[in-house]
Amino acid sequence: MFKIVKKRALNSSVILMELDAPFIAKKALAGQFIIFRVDEKGERIPLTIADYDREKGTITIIFQVAGRSTERLSQLSEGDSIRDVAGPLGVPTHLGEGVKKVCVVGGGVGCAIAYPQAKELFGKGLEVDVIAGFRNKDIVILEEEFKKQCNDLTICTDDGSYGKPGFVTDALKEKIESGSNYDAVIAIGPVPMMKFVCAVTKPFGIKTIVSLNPIMIDGTGMCGGCRVTVGGETKYACVDGPDFDGHQVDFDELMKRNSTYKEYEANCRLMAQAK
Length: 275
Ligand SMILES: Cc1cc2nc3c(=O)[nH]c(=O)nc-3n(C[C@H](O)[C@H](O)[C@H](O)COP(=O)(O)OP(=O)(O)OC[C@H]3O[C@@H](n4cnc5c(N)ncnc54)[C@H](O)[C@@H]3O)c2cc1C
Ligand code: FES
Prior knowledge:
By secondary structure, the chain is α/β, with parallel strands linked by helices. About 30% of the residues lie in helices and about 30% in strands.
């Protein structure tokens, strides 16, 4: 059992939880994730390790209430426990040699996944710019946390209600065109956002890492549920990723595969609400 030691709402649908998980906290690195089950009948759900404290033995998860399982998790309180948490899973983020200046681009709840990346790179002494995009002011998350972990933070909102009006891709293009000289870009958020960030960086030849979120089941490379096509080859995001070279990813296939169970998931949530 994994005890919830802290719970905090970051906006109306995004929740931060700190879990007592000393063995995971000991080994976790940026880019890795856990798979949890709320109880013995729960689905296996992947969530990124947004932060960890090796001394306290805790890990932090930040999740959007998207459907049945995340809703059930959101209903737990401080002091309650989660049945299973497996991790750390996946390959830690690795940018390669010679990278000195990076732009981390996050979209919506993807900022929860982008945050540990910015923190780790900034902590290693790299120059880090962050561009974080949200639909509107009400759902901006982690602004104060990002400010402490980067050289320059740009918050964008689609409707212009806060920060810079427009999409993260516009802000990124402006920065690149004004001579920001990034050695690498890390993009994490909705699949279309990552696809368009890659379209911005490709003509400039900037290495772009994306964190993919296919449907996962076992998280150990056995079931094939999370397969994605990268550079024409089949990869398993749970063991080969979730980070990949964005210029090689077949995003259209990923979007199609991610919508496979849409109708079933919607029905599950409606049935749960009707109970
Ligand atoms: C490596 C990885 C890291 C992730 N990290 C985060 C995170 O830090 N914060 C966060 O809010 N979300 C994260 N997600 C997405 C999160 O797993 C889904 O939002 C969650 O599974 C939704 O489940 P549900 O039952 O609440 O909703 P459902 O209604 O069942 O599903 C809503 C949507 O979530 C996705 N989804 C559902 N089941 C799975 C599954 N087993 N595996 C992957 N995606 C699924 C599908 O796109 C689906 O359409 C991550 C996904 C992956 C693969
Ligand atoms: S989740 Fe089963 S192979 Fe990756």
